[in-house]
Design brief:
This protein is mainly alpha-helical and 142 residues long. It has helices spanning 2-28, 43-62, 67-83, 99-117, 136-141, and strands spanning 126-129, 132-135. A two-stranded antiparallel ribbon has the order 1-2.
């Protein structure tokens, strides 16, 4: 029963982390690009996508289950989709209809799908213990 409870809590916390990361990335993906001219280097987009990739990969690699990465990925996508909804002015005031906005909106679900679908790599001498990878040498030390 404890492992199901731990999994449920982990999934909820991962989804919450995904919502936070998606919100941060949505507000910062236009950094470095002029809204008036569209010129500039999209450093905000690159850093936002890197942040999503790093967190999802850490959850995928750090735990023996895909559930945490999937929950965080869904959280990111939900945050992006909610913030693309039209505002009082008729269009999204957070995600602009430019190359960076399109890449951010389409790139987050693609990154999430790739990280979650990536096959697990099993190393010799390492086994799964309660969702966390544990080495056989570490087990001998106990």
């Amino acid at each position: 029963m404890s492992s199901r409870r731990d999994l449920a809590i982990g999934v909820l916390l991962s989804a919450l982390a995904g919502l936070v990361i998606g919100t941060l990335g949505t507000f910062k993906h236009q950094v470095g690009v002029s809204a008036a001219t569209g010129a500039g280097f999209p450093v905000g987009l690159l850093l936002s996508l890197a942040m999503v990739l790093a967190v999802l990969t850490a959850l995928r690699v750090g735990f023996g289950t895909r559930w945490f990465a999937l929950a965080a990925g869904i959280g990111v996508v939900v945050a992006v989709l909610v913030l693309t909804l039209p505002g009082a002015s008729g269009g999204s005031t957070v995600i602009l209809l430019n190359a960076e906005g399109i890449v951010w909106t389409a790139g987050t679900p693609v990154l999430g799908a790739v990280v979650v679908a990536w096959p697990a790599r099993r190393r010799p001498g390492v086994r799964e213990a309660g969702g966390i990878l544990e080495s056989a040498e570490a087990k001998k030390d106990d």
